[in-house]
Amino acid sequence: MYLTVLGCWAPYPQPSGACSGYLLQEDGRSLLIDTGNGVLSRLLQHMEVKDLDAVILSHLHPDHLMDIYSLRHAAEAANREGRMNRRIPIYLPYGPAEDFNRIMGFNKAFELQLIDELPAPKGVTVAGFQVTFVPSKHNLPAYSIAVTGSKRFVFSGDTAYNEELIKLAGGADLFLCEASGLDKDAEYLKDNHLTARQAGELARAAGVKRLMITHFYPEYALSQLQAQAEQGFGQRVELAREGATVTL
Ligand SMILES: [Zn+2]
Ligand SMILES: [Zn+2]
Questions:
Q1: Share of the chain above pLDDT 70, in %
Q2: What CA–CA distance (Å, rounded) separates 109 from 78?
Q3: Who is most buried in 25, 111, 185, 209, counting CB within 10 A?
Q4: pLDDT, tens digit, for every residue of 152-165?
Q5: Exposure of 215 in the CB half-sphere (CA atoms within 13 A)
Q6: Which ligand does the CA of 19 lie closest to?
């Protein structure tokens, strides 16, 4: 099972960078989590849209969403030209209405499934992976996501500290967790995001095997985020690096 980081910046990219986008692959199956700005061109460096099995949007903030608008055109073109003969399943939460309703209109490209409407516990098979969703703590409807293939991958999405995420991340082979700031930002972040140290503490509480931090604001030195995350985790912490593929 492989994870390729397509984009890791928030809420805007650094030069030549991309916002949230993560590609999970195993046995020829491909699942894309988040379509932040810049993610589609990065995805196309690794695969063709016709081979994309499904997409999950953790939430509809622009840094996790924007390239859905260009992916729509790529999927429609692939169908029109006979390279693909299906709609791509997209799992997403409801809201804000303006974005959601616009995506609802892309029904030639996408087959939409509201995560909110999945019966509890929100477990479903997506692209051959077992996927579980847990609501995160954010200022929009948003989810943390566990994806199980031969290994267990957990992505925090955007979230403040959340006991339910600790349960979801329990025993993860790789936990990809947002780390949106340093200790000094804790007050500013506290309702919607995690500091790097909190990401580490949460990962330690969950007993994950590996922690990779992401969702970097371009203002920060990544080495400082990494150092504070490692203090929280008590072990080495990896940084998400655009273009890098890691084996779970
Ligand atoms: Zn967000
Ligand atoms: Zn974000």
A1: 100
A2: 9
A3: 25
A4: 999 999 999 999 99
A5: 26
A6: 2
CATH of domain 2-247: 3.60.15.10
User: Could you read off the pLDDT of 230-239 as tens digits, one per residue?
Assistant: 999 999 999 9
Three state DSSP letters for 163-179: HHHHHHHCCCCEEEEEC
Distance 52 CA to ligand 1 centre (A): 24
| Ligand 2 centroid to residue 75 C-alpha, Å | 25
What one-letter code names the amino acid at 130?
Answer: Q
Domain ranges (residues) in the chain = 2-247
Instruction: Give residue 183's pLDDT.
Output: 98
pLDDT at site 112:
97
The CA 90 to ligand 1 mean position distance, Å, reads 18
For residue 179, which ligand has an atom nearest its CA?
2
Determine the distance separating the centroid of ligand 2 and the alpha carbon of 85, expressed in angstroms. Answer: 32
